[in-house]
Amino acid sequence: MDEIAKWRMVAGFVALALLALVAVRGLGSDAGERTAAPVRIAGGPKPGGRARPPTRSAGIYVHVAGAVRRPGLLRIPKGARIALAVHRAGGPTPEAEMAAVNLAQRLSDGQQVIVPRAGAGPVAGAPGSTGVAGAEDVPVSLASATSEQLEELDGIGPALAERILEFRDESGGFRSVGQLQEVEGIGEKRYAALKEAVVP
Length: 200
Prior knowledge:
Elements: H1 3-36, E1 59-66, E2 72-77, H2 82-88, E3 112-115, E4 129-130, E5 140-141, H3 147-151, H4 158-171, H5 188-194, E6 198-199
Parallel strand pairs: 1-3, 3-4, 5-6
Antiparallel strand pairs: 1-2
């Protein structure tokens, strides 16, 4: 084999090697592009988009009073029933008359639930209340009471009832029963007679 033929053979091998190298690089580039493509999970945010924050379930506020262990204002899920409100209030006390309460009734925002004590005489509760209780078991809500309802309490006449309502409007509501002492005309004796008959 002459010298020229040898060089032609070497040049052919070099050309084949270069072609093989270019082909391998091209395949690697295509594979990298395929693996780098973003994968979208069903139900997830679009690539580059912001994830939506989880939504909180709607809730309502109800006031549970009477023969329960922890009476007061509660936040419960919308559409809940009285049974849940009584449970969240610590459950009924031993003297509670649960037969007088419809535990299956659905609650609405701002409603008052009064769990009566056994043997208490039936009287009408405050507007939006549920349950039957004796007069001593139905506290008047300072947050929603009208002038007429306040006047039914011992020692409160029309003038004092109006001052209580004015104080409620000016202070943004009653956060505690003790704030009654800030109303002009309610001293220690009158407050002592009222504090068990009202709730914030």
